[in-house]
Design a protein that fits this description.
The protein has eleven helices and no strands. The protein is globular and about 70 Å long. The protein has one domain: MetI-like fold (Orthogonal Bundle). Helix content is 79%, strand content 0%.
Length: 233
Amino acid sequence: MTHLFEAFNIALRMIVTGDSVVFSIALRTLLIASTSTLAATLLFVPLGCMVHFSTFRGKRLAVGFIQTMYSVPTVFVGMLVFLMVSRSGPIGGMGLLFSPWAIILGEIVLIAPIITGLTISALQSTGKCLEDTATALGAGRGIMILKVLTEAKYTMLTSVLMGFGRAVSEVGVAIMVGGNISGYTRTLTTAIALGVGKGETASSIALGLILLFLAMMVSIVVNLLQHGHGGEK
């Protein structure tokens, strides 16, 4: 127990004094997670909107499949991306394996169902009544869609934050396609896993506290958005 308290104190000092190794790993993790979340947002928020506002056979089944993929194992995604970017893979010639870009690609695939599915749920939560009212008042389809998007903007932003939270805390993809290379592809989660295995308790605790702080910040912002949106109503 004494050893644990000492390690915890050392970890706090590393954070307070701005340990270069700890904060370089944290910054790299933020950059990778932010880039993958931005790319996934640009790709899959429009996809979620398109699914919601379209009518096609099998739509309910498609939405159900997307929602089922929320909890897809990170190691499974890591395996798929590894097969894609390895030398024998379809995009192996791009040299992405064991690079930050491979992790970004993996995290995009990982959070795509979350952002797509929660965007659809956000639009559905506005209710069919809003769409019918806008149409009854003579609004064209474009205006009706704009009004629904405006009403759902906070819940749609929540879907993006949830995607970021999933990206910043995953470990399977980062290890499998990033390789956990020091100073290049090592992220908070992979550094913690390596540190625990090597007995580097203090640095692992410091990294864990930073990761916990990031997760808490995402949760707090999501709650503020939800309560603020509810207050507006």
